[in-house]
Write a structure and sequence with these properties.
The chain is mostly helical. About 80% of the residues lie in helices and about 0% in strands. Helix 1 (about 1-15) packs antiparallel against helix 2 and helix 1 packs across helix 6 (about 120-145). Keywords: Membrane, Transmembrane, Transmembrane helix.
Length: about 150
């Protein structure tokens, strides 16, 4: 979800001079909701394919929590855009700050993924480099699509 949010924020920022904070926030919310709904649907289909039955209530709650928990990554960008809507700064400034927050978030998540592994420091650095490169490719493809 963070990659998607970053791609949306970067894309919106290319048109920020023509956007209201409300439009930017609505675009981010709709994209986020669509993405997590798609992730939930994929999780549900994969459960059906593997187990041949619908998930039980405990499994369903876990699937919902995981899928919709990803919405947490848009909270800070929405707060920043909300400040622009309140007149604290420009939409461009809010989207630029949101891009920075999301980029740092990706770095922290990547670090959390490798920090407790048995990899050497050099291997951890290489893994983070590969993750960063993949992130750049994903963002570039999403920007190209827009």
């Amino acid at each position: 979800m963070t990659f998607v949010s970053l791609a949306v924020v970067l894309t919106l920022n290319t048109h920020a001079t023509h956007l209201s904070a409300r439009t930017a926030a609505a675009t981010l919310v709709v994209t986020a909701l669509g993405t997590v709904a798609a992730a939930f649907a994929a999780d549900l289909v994969s459960h059906l394919a593997v187990h041949g039955v619908l998930p039980g209530s405990t499994e369903l709650r876990q699937m919902l929590r995981v899928s919709f928990g990803a919405l947490g990554s848009v909270v800070a960008p929405l707060l920043l855009i909300g400040l622009a809507g309140a007149g604290a700064w420009s939409v461009t400034g809010a989207l630029t700050a949101a891009s920075a927050v999301l980029t740092v978030t990706l770095g922290v998540v990547g670090w959390m993924g490798v920090r407790r592994t048995d990899l050497t420091a050099l291997q951890k650095l290489a893994a983070l480099g590969v993750l960063a490169l993949l992130g750049i490719v994903v963002i570039a493809l999403k920007l190209l699509a827009h």
